[in-house]
Amino acid sequence: MRVLQLASRxxxxxxxxxxxxxxxxEPGFENLSQNSQNSQNRQFRQHSQLSKNRQFSQRIKNTTKxxxxxxxxxxxxxxxxxxxxxxxxxxxxxxxxVTDRCNLRCHYCMPAEGIDxxxxxxxxxxxxxxxxxxxMVELGVTKVRITGGEPFVRKNMYGFLKRLTRIxxxxxxxxxxxxxxxxxxxxFLKEIGISAINLSLDTLDRERFKTITRRDFFDExxxxxxxxxxxxxxxxxxxxxMARHNWQDVIPMAELTAKDPVSIRFIxxxxxxxxxxxxxxxxxxxxxxxxxxAHFGNLETLPTPAGSTARxxxxxxxxxxxxxxxxxxxxxxxxxxxxxxTATGKLKNCLYDHGVLNLKRMLSDGSSDTMIKAxxxxxxxxxxxxxxxxxQQRSSAISESMSSIGG
Length: 407
Ligand code: SAM
Ligand code: SF4
Prior knowledge:
Order of helices and strands: HHHHHEHEHEHEHHEHEHEEEEEEHHHH
Bound molecules: S-adenosylmethionine, iron/sulfur cluster
Largest sheet: 12 strands, mixed
Number of strands: 12
Structural class: alpha/beta
Distance between the termini: 40 Å
Shape: globular
């Protein structure tokens, strides 16, 4: 409460005069003496509840609008449970790529011959990923999505997931998979507390599946679809919409929502296919929306959860929902609450950056958790306002595969 009163009275000049070292997460705070850290920890804990307060968050946004990012960072840092970037967006969600390898070769993700997979020793180890997740949770992350490459091609994945879901204060662990080898393990995933599965499925036609993925795993993917529903888990289906390959599948995929409690998410294709450019003419979120609207009549618009990349709809009378993700048009960046960690441990504030911090190095060179937290905080505060600004800052054209980024 006191902080809020203070905030409402304070002027931009006042913020400028704050000593920067009062922030627990300021760079270099690891050098503070233990006593001083403990006393600051106590003070910060007293204020931690405030981070949950919308007014507080609004104050941060307003402060940032004043162009005073240091002041915003000060208030963010007083709340120990959440980390905010300089635009007032909280860090809540981490996408963790556990491998860059995959058993499919989807057109929109990588070339037929695959990509230069990194040597295994360059991948984060399971121990490093577990430690990193604990650190992220302490910085405010409540939700982790495991992705890749294909997560289930990495050995001992199930043991890792079991340990991951036991991390205290981690509220949700979900997985994005192509479903090629996961089908028999769905009950186990449910049992250990995986809350949701995102299944990538771009068509309901066996031959087109083979063409798009360059592999013959249609039956396995469909059996994963059925297994997730049978287990009563939350199921989202990701379909990358491409003019040349699967435009004719948009309506049949939407029809799945008639009977199944599933969310079908139509995604604009991005140029992360290992060689840059898009594989076909882009079908934008507007094209997709208009196509659905023309076929089904009025789509019911549903509320969009904070931080969601999808605009949600329901076909009246249908059980499931439809999401449209403007991944290429990037209409949702203002609300972004996520970071990505690649399989080699690069921290990415945005899909479109080159990586802003080498976490693998810090996790293996003896850096303390405190030092890693400080480095992540510093990097996160530099998150740019949107994917366009980030793309502009790139030093080279896009040529990565989504498989190495962790989509
Ligand atoms: N292999 C798993 C799978 O396919 O579900 C997880 C990794 S994959 C990179 C994660 C998601 O990224 C998938 O849903 C996939 O459809 C999506 N994706 C890959 N390349 C994409 C691209 N160029 N544009 C849009 N989405 C893409
Ligand atoms: Fe593999 Fe997923 Fe990329 Fe397809 S989208 S090639 S399944 S990583």
